Amino acid sequence: MLAAFKKYMIDVKDLSGKTVKRHIEHLDFYLNIYLAEYEKVTPINSVESIENFLGNFFVRKNLMSSHTSLKQNGSALKKLYQFLYDAGEISKIEFTEINEFIRTGLQEGEEYLSFIDDESWF
Predict the structure, then answer these.
(1) DSSP three-state, residue 92
(2) How many Å is the Cα radius of gyration of the chain?
(3) Which residue range or ranges hold the Integrase SAM-like N-terminal domain (predicted)?
């Protein structure tokens, strides 16, 4: 799937190889750690998992999580699910829901990171 995603991003979306590589690196944690090992689902049947990943799992389990990396992961997820929509793997309704889950998950993740950044809590 990632090979087809890479080809799509370069050929259809006209992104540079460096940008595509960064998106794939961000997707690796989501696909191989969170979905495969933790949720035990695939990207196609994991619509509700996206919000939990961004708003909870990523910011708590990834030691490299930051406001920037959270946004970069959100961007990579949007591109992955745009690819799956364009490939006919998910419906328009699912795609709309996914974008909402990404938006909500990003907000929750930002709130958590802001809380952790605030040194007055401990």
Answers:
(1) helix
(2) 15
(3) 3-88
Can you say whether the dihedral through the CA atoms of 6, 22, 40, 88 is positive or negative?
A: negative
At 45, give phi and psi (nearest 5°).
-110, 35
* 95-122: average pLDDT: 87
Closest CA to 80 of 14, 5, 19: 5
Model confidence at 122, pLDDT cuts 50, 70, 90, reads: low
Greater confidence (17 vs 117) lies with 17
* Cβ(81)–Cβ(108) below 8 Å: no
10-19 b/e (C-beta count within 10 Å ≥ 16 → b): eeeeebeeee
Q: What is the DSSP letter of 87?
A: T
Q: Which secondary structure element, helix H or strand E, spans residue 52, and what is its range?
A: helix 49-52
pLDDT tens profile 41-55:
999 988 889 999 999
Answer for the pair 58, 29: CB distance below 8 angstroms, yes or no. Answer: yes
- The C-alpha atoms of residue 24 and residue 11 are separated, in whole angstroms, by 15
